[in-house]
Known about the structure:
The chain is mainly α. The chain has one domain. Helix content is 68%, strand content 0%. InterPro entries: Acyl_transf_3_dom, Acyltransferase_3.
Amino acid sequence: MRSSDRVYLAPVDHLRAAAAVLVVLYHGCQLLGARIEGRDFRPVTDWLYSTNPAATLVFEGHTGVALFMVLSGFIFTVGAHGKPVRYGRFLTNRLLRVYPLYLVIAVLGMATHIAIPTFQDLLRILTFAAPAQPYGGVFWTLCVEMQFYLVFPLLNRLLTERGPGALLRLLAAVSLLRALVWLSSPAPEPHTAALYLGLAGRIDQFLLGMLAAWLYLHHRGRLRNRWLPPAALTLAVGLLWSFNQVHGFVSDSPLKLAWSSAEGAVWALVVAAYVANRGPGGALSRAAARLGEVSFSVYLTHFMVLTVICEYGYGWLPRGLPPVWGAFLVTLLVALPVTVGLSFLTYHAIELPFLRLRRPYVGGAPVVETPRPRQRESYRGR
Length: 382
């Protein structure tokens, strides 16, 4: 990869940190708020709503997952720009990135079961399907990410040789097919959850991340405008506010079929704009970057921390405030710092030793970018 094509790492880590914090605050408000009221959280009936856009950013903080998925497409595409991807080495690197910490948490989670784990339990662990709460509430996203990794080298070749139009056409085709699947469902009231939470919905966000990378690589000069990042963030918050007002996450409205694309599009704009403008510097920037570096550990461990607080911190959870405010403060002042501290430990003890085993996965002759979508593919040097 040419030095001029490198991702400016600090802004990327800033965005990773923001995504991780959003997810922690979201789960904390939902779970601890219900606990303060002395009940279990029921997503369909107990979802949090507000007319305050800042509050809805937290209440719909699951959008941090969408930001992570957009970032995945963005980072891989910039990193592989102009070079063919070595498929085996790429997948090996992804396994070294994801599996070590995940396996530790999943195996420990299985140890909480009274029954001795079976071979089927092992298969569920290897495919990110085990165990349930409190350890596995976020594992479903890892399954989707692994599916992204399987198809990225092909998608990257399409983008390089055929241009962004190839991914735009693929995005349109997936959106149309997703709508047809929903319309042809035999259920009297078809559900949209699987079409939103699985690969069928989330592939939009990965593709949009790749397109944001193409935009950044080819038009970064046009993106360098100090007003563009706040404008893109305002658009994202406004969209989330609208989603919250129509109870989007817990609804089965057909409009939800387009939500994955809309959500991915605004975060793709935020990513491209923020990275192109490189964000703030100084101590705050370095601290945010360090947090972004351990964001995977934050994502995998925060549910455990929140569960412990729910179970053992019941006596000191605030009662004088509205439950959602009490939950927000406990999450911000207790759960988040504890999770971050734990994450620095798990990152350096479990993640980092395996990350150092990764090897470059791009190489060989540079791929010629083809301006015409129907031109035959070629490689420089053949």
